[in-house]
């Protein structure tokens, strides 16, 4: 028989499809020994048509032995399927506490590994850029009038000298769920020549304290984080960039012409950003009615610096217990593989979710005069990774932008909130004081000042 002929099993499904994802099929079969043999030669990060990795499926189907095998072999944890859900999202939905803990630890470990892998390139890039001072203005806006009134603005100042980097900001963080904003006088220091945990420091200048950005969490901190995950909505937000296009913005009422303006000291061409949307999804099939009632109070407590963990009469935390496993999936491998992409039959709990999608009308001003390149900006933004709003800026700048440097741009932060970012000033300088990159002698170390860092 010709080897190129695709054989069929009589059900209309080609045998070739059976063999396309051997690890995934093995998860369905629940054959641990076969899986252990296959994983030696198969790509553990490979996704099927639904965007699921073998780890996604093992979690949804309750194959705990296979989950532990995959984690032991460093299968990627922070990877999303076609609907935006990670293996950790699915583990929270399934409700097995030990699995959630294992995934959370592995995700943090992999994040640390990625930072360390990028560090040499980052330090090299900083060395190649001259010392500079830069100002970035943030104006947060909303189409909801009452929300828009309370949103903050922020003027960030950045100093760079050698492999050292300093960012001064008044905006510490924002809460995704209820748009609460934490203000302060915060300084972020990065020393490319120092090793973790001495390379990243955040200072609270009002309180006169500093905290090293930690690379390891205590068992208690992990347990607290798992309690919070098991008690609240599973949330994912992603900016859709597939259909984004750029078109020249026009000015003038009668005689239309390409819009040009001076932003700070830089001449800029304006472009419309077309097709930009932000989608936010929330899942809560793992929550009881009591959980739903407590959810808002938990978030409010956390954003005010309180504790969301229940304490018993002895002062010990009351940990969330694992949920009862969902009913076994009745979906077969064939049904799963032949279902439309992203619409396979339920494999675990029936999803209870809400989608919020909003399109954004945005503009970006590109300047050929700005002294910094987009590639250099990406290196700078890499340093600011702990700050969520800077992470959003990094994601946007990573798009294929029109020629030049984005001296002014709009980016979505939440479905109802966007940020207008302006690079107001930039200058290369050779007189930046080295003391700017040192923690003042009278500051006291507080390891718990910024619990999310």
From TrEMBL:
Which Pfam families has this protein been placed in?
Answer: Ank_2 (PF12796), ANKRD13_C (PF11904)
KW Glycoprotein (keyword) present? no
One biological process term from GO is: protein retention in ER lumen
Indicate where this protein is primarily found.
endoplasmic reticulum
GO cellular component terms given for this protein:
endoplasmic reticulum membrane
What is this protein for, i.e. what is its function? Acts as a molecular chaperone for G protein-coupled receptors, regulating their biogenesis and exit from the ER.
Protein name as catalogued = Ankyrin repeat domain-containing protein 13C
- Point out the gene that encodes the protein: ankrd13c_1
């Amino acid at each position: 028989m010709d080897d190129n002929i695709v054989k069929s099993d009589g059900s209309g499904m080609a045998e070739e499809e059976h063999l396309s994802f051997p690890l995934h099929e093995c998860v369905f079969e629940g054959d641990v020994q076969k899986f252990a043999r296959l994983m030696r030669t198969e790509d553990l990060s490979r996704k099927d048509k639904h965007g699921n990795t073998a780890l996604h499926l093992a979690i949804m189907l309750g194959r705990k032995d296979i989950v532990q095998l995959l984690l032991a072999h460093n299968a990627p944890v922070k990877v999303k399927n076609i609907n935006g859900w990670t293996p950790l999202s699915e583990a929270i939905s399934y409700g097995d506490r030990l699995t959630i803990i294992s995934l959370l630890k592995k995700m943090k470990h992999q994040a640390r590994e990625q930072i360390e892998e990028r560090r040499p390139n980052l330090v090299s890039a900083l060395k190649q850029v001259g010392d500079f001072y830069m100002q970035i203005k943030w104006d947060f806006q909303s189409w909801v009038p009452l929300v828009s009134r309370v949103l903050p603005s922020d003027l960030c100042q950045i100093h760079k000298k050698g492999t050292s980097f300093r960012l001064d900001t008044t905006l510490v963080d924002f809460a995704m769920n209820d748009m609460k904003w934490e203000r302060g006088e915060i300084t972020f220091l990065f020393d490319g020549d120092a090793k973790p945990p001495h390379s990243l420091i955040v200072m609270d200048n009002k309180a006169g304290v500093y905290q090293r950005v930690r690379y390891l969490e205590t068992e208690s901190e992990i347990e607290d984080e798992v309690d919070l995950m098991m008690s609240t909505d599973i949330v994912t937000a992603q900016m859709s960039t597939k259909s984004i296009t750029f078109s020249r913005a026009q000015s003038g009422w009668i005689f239309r012409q390409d819009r040009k303006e001076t932003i700070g000291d830089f001449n800029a061409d304006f472009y419309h950003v077309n097709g930009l949307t932000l989608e936010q999804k929330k899942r809560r099939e793992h929550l009881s009615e009591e959980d739903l009632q407590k959810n808002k109070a938990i978030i409010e407590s956390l954003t005010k610096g309180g504790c969301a963990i229940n304490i018993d009469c002895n002062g010990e935390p009351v940990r969330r217990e694992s949920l009862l496993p969902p009913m076994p999936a009745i979906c077969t491998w064939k049904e799963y593989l032949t279902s439309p992409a992203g619409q396979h039959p339920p494999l675990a709990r029936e999803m209870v979710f809400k989608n919020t999608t909003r399109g954004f009308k945005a503009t970006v001003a590109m300047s050929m005069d700005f002294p910094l390149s987009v590639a250099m900006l990406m290196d700078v933004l890499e340093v600011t990774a702990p700050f969520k709003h800077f992470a959003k800026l990094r994601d946007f700048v990573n798009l294929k932008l029109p020629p030049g440097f984005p001296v002014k741009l709009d980016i979505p932060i939440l479905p109802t909130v966007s940020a207008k970012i302006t690079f107001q000033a930039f200058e290369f300088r050779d007189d930046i004081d080295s003391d700017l990159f040192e923690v003042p002698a009278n500051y006291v170390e507080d390891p718990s000042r910024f619990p999310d860092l």
